[in-house]
Amino acid sequence: KVVQIKKSCLRSSTKQLFPDLQDLLKSIVSRMKKAVEDDVFIPLYPKSAVENKTSPHSKFQERQFWSGLKLFRNILLWNGLLTDDTLQELGLGKLLNRYLIIALLNATPGPDVVKKCNQVAACLPEKWFENSAMRTSIPQLENFIQFLLQSAHKLSRSEFRDEVEEIILILVKIKALNQAESFIGEHHLDHLKSLIKED
């Protein structure tokens, strides 16, 4: 349905849409807000309770994270029909920063966490980062960026050093270039400088 509505509206801006469609979009935004507020729940357990991946607490938190990420992806699929401000408020402000980040912060740094971060980044509309002059990302991603940097710092001192490169690539994708460069410089990771391409 999302694709069908998008195809029917590609030639018009949101302001030029028929009143019925504008009402439909307002209704969709209202339902999205309700879904985020009523349907998303990320439990906050002690880390000791979720370190064992087979424990009931860990399994439940995993299910809740992926359920929340599915809603996150579905919200951002409306890119092009809903305004960037609306999507960033709902997807980033209300869902990522209030819920998904909790699950990430409560997880043990490692490949699983990096995989989740990659999935989050993959949902973000590319047009938000098309400006070649961007050196810092959009403000609503600051918490996510700080989490990425903290994770990279911890992983750089562990056996999961390959995951640090993955995190740098995520930072580059979301145009957090200044932070990526600073991290590489501070940790003397000269071999990763090539990941940051100057436009």
Question: Overview of this structure, please?
Answer:
This protein is mainly α. The protein has 2 domains: 94 residues; 91 residues, no CATH class. It contains 9 helices and no strands. Helix 2 packs parallel to helix 5, helix 4 runs antiparallel to helix 5 and helix 7 runs antiparallel to helix 8. It is flat and about 55 Å long. The termini are far apart.
Low-confidence spans: none
Instruction: Indicate the percent of residues in helices.
Output: 55-70%
Rg, Å, rounded: 19 Å
Output the number of helix runs: 9
- Largest sheet geometry: none
Tally of structural domains: 2
The end-to-end span amounts to 37 Å
Dominant shape? flat
Order of H and E elements = HHHHHHHHH
Summary of the model, kept short:
This protein is mainly alpha-helical and 199 residues long. It has nine helices and no strands.
